[in-house]
UniProtKB/TrEMBL annotation:
The reaction(s) this protein catalyses: 1-(5-phospho-beta-D-ribosyl)-ATP + H2O = 1-(5-phospho-beta-D-ribosyl)-5'-AMP + diphosphate + H(+)
Biological process annotations from GO: L-histidine biosynthetic process
Stated name of the protein: Phosphoribosyl-ATP pyrophosphatase
Keyword tags: Amino-acid biosynthesis, ATP-binding, Cytoplasm, Histidine biosynthesis, Hydrolase, Nucleotide-binding
GO molecular function, one term: phosphoribosyl-ATP diphosphatase activity
Lineage per the UniProt record: Bacteria, Pseudomonadati, Pseudomonadota, Gammaproteobacteria, Cellvibrionales
Family membership noted in the UniProt record: Belongs to the PRA-PH family.
Pathway: Amino-acid biosynthesis; L-histidine biosynthesis; L-histidine from 5-phospho-alpha-D-ribose 1-diphosphate: step 2/9
Main localization category: cytoplasm
InterPro entries, per the entry: HisE, PRib-ATP_PPHydrolase-like
Length: 111
């Protein structure tokens, strides 16, 4: 899992630097700009939600897996566009690892 995300990030950075919009989907997203990338993230998030509801009602498991993959991919393009590294997200999750979400929320409420 970690390896494919790292490998994909390398490709995404290459496409951002030297990809041609006519031959690379990732380069075409960067070329169209942040608003287009955010539109795709929103669209894929909605499709993932709909696929989750469908699966809960007896729908197709592969549909949800594919939609979440689309969402992760477009989120990675968004991060790349803004020069935010995947390692920053990993570090954030690592910092939270083992800390209950309920405990973290309670600590936030302290004056
Ligand atoms: N993982 C992906 C990936 N996942 C999804 N997609 C593309 O995301 C696009 C958007 O999906 P949609 O379902 O919204 O399709 P659509 O309705 O045609 O999209 P729009 O017309 O609305 O833009 C599709 O064209 C998918 O092919 C991806 N395109 C590329 N990658 C990876 O990125 C690498 C670089 O891709 P290129 O830049 O195209 O070479 C590839 O080698 C892959 O590893």
């Amino acid at each position: 899992m970690h390896d494919i995300l790292q490998s994909l990030q390398v490709i995404l950075e290459q496409r951002k630097r030297e990809g041609e919009p006519d031959s690379s989907y990732v380069a075409s997203l960067h070329h169209q700009g942040l608003n287009k990338i955010l539109e795709k993230v929103g669209e894929e998030a909605t499709e993932a939600i709909l696929a989750a509801k469908d699966l809960d009602n007896g729908g197709n498991r592969e549909d949800l897996v594919g939609e979440v993959a689309d969402l992760w991919f477009h989120s990675m393009v968004m991060l790349s566009h803004l020069d935010v590294g995947l390692d920053e997200i990993g570090d954030c999750l690592a910092d939270r690892f083992g800390l209950s979400g309920l405990d973290e929320k309670a600590a936030r409420k302290q004056p």
